[in-house]
Structures are given as structure tokens and as C-alpha cells.
Amino acid sequence: MDNIKVKELNGLALAYLGDAVWELRLREKFVAKNLKVKDLNKLVKAHVSAIAQSKIYLDVIDELDDEYKACAKRARNSKISTFPKSCTMKEYKNATAFEALIAMCYINKREDIIEGILENY
Question: Is 2 part of the annotated catalytic residue set?
Fold first, then answer.
């Protein structure tokens, strides 16, 4: 990921990457607890939903550096043509911003930020 420049990526592409990183980190966290697979799946699904990600985003955004806030805002303001019926458009946009934030942390090797978020959720 050393050759990727966050500012050159479109916000939705960042969210796409961040979605994968977030789900993987959640899976690692819950697998380490030695839970049954059906329980693992329920826990991960609960944390990767747009509603859950929107809540996390709203909890953490004010604590971040301006560079991370700007990245999340860029993703949140991306043109999203469709969204699931399971959440509001605002929740979906916030979830998109959260995923972009996770991608930026991953690209910039700021695992400490991802770990901090994981510890609280």
C-alpha cells in the first residue's frame, strides 16, 4: 500500500477498501475469542452494518486529526445513487465515511487508530 496516495483516491474507492479492512479486523477480534462460527457471523454482521458504522463514525469523528476528518467528509459527500432499505441515507453516508476513514488508517499504517476503535466496539 506504499504507492497509494489517499488524496488521489475517490472517496467511494476508499470506502470499498475500508469495508474489507474493517470486516477482516472484526473477524480477527472475534475469532480470537474462540466463539462458535454462528456466533462469529452474528457479531461481525452486527458491526459491519451501515447503522453500526454510522454510530461509530459519529462517536469518533470529532477526535480525529483534520486530515482524517477531511478524508471521511470527502467520502461522505460522494455521490451515492442507491442505498439499502435497512438504513437511512444519512446513516449510509456516515458508514461510507467511516469505511473511508478505516482505509486511510490502513494505507497510512495507523493501526493504532483502528485498534482504538475496535477496543471500544
Answer: no
